[in-house]
């Protein structure tokens, strides 16, 4: 049972700054506020396929 890996991309500049391992049971779309070094601030990050 391997957890799937998800890349989190900045909603402002589109950079994929984080990779997380997510529970495959989860259904809703992931949105997290994280620091983007390209934007220089905390921005919303969304999962990418
Ligand atoms: Zn950014």
From TrEMBL:
Recorded GO MF terms: structural constituent of ribosome
SUPFAM superfamilies: Zn-binding ribosomal proteins
One family name in Pfam for this protein: Ribosomal_L33
Keyword Ribosomal protein: yes
Alphabetical GO biological process terms: translation
The keyword Transcription belongs to this UniProt entry's keyword annotation: no
Family: Belongs to the bacterial ribosomal protein bL33 family.
Stated name of the protein: Large ribosomal subunit protein bL33
């Amino acid at each position: 049972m391997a957890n799937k890996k998800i890349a989190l991309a900045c909603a402002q500049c589109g950079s994929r700054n984080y990779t997380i391992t997510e529970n495959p049971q989860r259904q809703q779309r992931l949105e997290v506020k994280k620091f983007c070094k390209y934007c220089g601030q905390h921005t919303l990050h969304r999962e990418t396929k």
